[in-house]
Amino acid sequence: MKFNKNLESIRTYEAGKPIELVVREFGIEAKDVVKLASNENPYGCSTKVQKAVGDILSNMALYPDDSMTKLKNAISSRFDVEVSNVIIGSGSDQVIEFLMHAKANSSSKILVNSVTFAMYEIYAKHVGAKIIKTASQKHDLNEFYDIYKEQKPEIIFLCTPNNPTGDAIDRDELFKFIAKIDSDTLVVVDGAYMEYAIAKDSSKEIVVKELIEQFSNVIYLGTFSKAYGLGGMRVGYGIADAKIIEELYKLRPPFNITTLSLEAASVALIDEEFVQKSITLNFEQMKRYEEFALEQKIDIINSYTNFVTLCLNNNQNSTEISNSLLQKGMIVRNLSGYGMNAIRVTVGTADQNSRFFELLKQCL
Ligand SMILES: *Cc1c(COP(=O)(O)O)cnc(C)c1O
């Protein structure tokens, strides 16, 4: 059977291995498997969210509230924007998919950083668009601008802080850059880890209201999967000029967010205390990774997120090391597919991190 030609060049996205798979494959008990591969919140989610979701478990027969009024109101007041500026997706992934279909086709070009979130490229390929990558590993906005001038891409993706490297773009630089981009080019600012960046360094904070008020061609993406600890609920959002949001709505499947997810995300936004506590613990634990890297003479990228990227030495192979860690029940992300001899490790709880240090030492 013939399929859409666009699919031929797509390598299926490999998500972090689930714990259940390691249990089956290596016969390790689930309690001995540690997953530090997908940047989930190791402290779970707010107990207020758990209670709220429990309270509505008896209401599963009806379709969800497709207007999503409760969550949209919560997001609009959190960011001080209008409800018409907000779209909610099944993860911010789905918003990326919408905007790709809204803006690009097989004659489009999409500009991304050389090392960045893999889904931009996959969604670009769905519509047959051409991906153009920078050479620099860190977002170099001068390079982005030079390529933009020459290639005139339909969409530019800026991921700040960036996954899988953890570095972040300065707010002032980002605003100056976008000001030079013509208003028909869509600029996507993916802030999946922004809550962490703001806590570490206020010069990295992108104030969403300012961003969308200054620029009608920008969409900001956020997610409940990371700092809010709701990866299992699949909720993300896009915030932009109402004209952009209106177009994205044409692509949205009905009832794309479940009743449970809508409730979970709405309540999660109210419990700021849980998020702030997770972030504080994250950076406390991250110091241990920095010390460990120094001690082991491994390079670590300064991270504004809940993960660290360890750039291994020439005599260490990230594929071999992540495989041996896996056999010991430690799931991390091998970055060889990004052309890096590095592993990305989610900063876990104190116990999980101690275990990681112990196991990695055995592998080095
Ligand atoms: C995790 C992540 C997302 C989206 O995650 P969802 O779970 O789909 O909301 C988007 N961008 C980056 C850079 C991420 O790391």
From TrEMBL:
The keyword Transferase applies. One of its GO terms (molecular function) is histidinol-phosphate transaminase activity. It catalyses: L-histidinol phosphate + 2-oxoglutarate = 3-(imidazol-4-yl)-2-oxopropyl phosphate + L-glutamate. Residues 31-356 form the Aminotransferase class I/classII large domain. Pfam families: Aminotran_1_2. It is an enzyme of class 2 (transferase). The keyword Amino-acid biosynthesis applies. The modification N6-(pyridoxal phosphate)lysine is found at K226. Its EC number is 2.6.1.9. GO terms for biological process: L-histidine biosynthetic process. Pathway: Amino-acid biosynthesis; L-histidine biosynthesis; L-histidine from 5-phospho-alpha-D-ribose 1-diphosphate: step 7/9. Keywords: Amino-acid biosynthesis, Aminotransferase, Histidine biosynthesis, Pyridoxal phosphate, Transferase. Its cofactor is pyridoxal 5'-phosphate. Belongs to the class-II pyridoxal-phosphate-dependent aminotransferase family. Histidinol-phosphate aminotransferase subfamily. HAMAP family: HisC_aminotrans_2 (MF_01023). Homodimer. This is Histidinol-phosphate aminotransferase. It comes from Candidatus Sulfurimonas marisnigri. The gene is hisC.
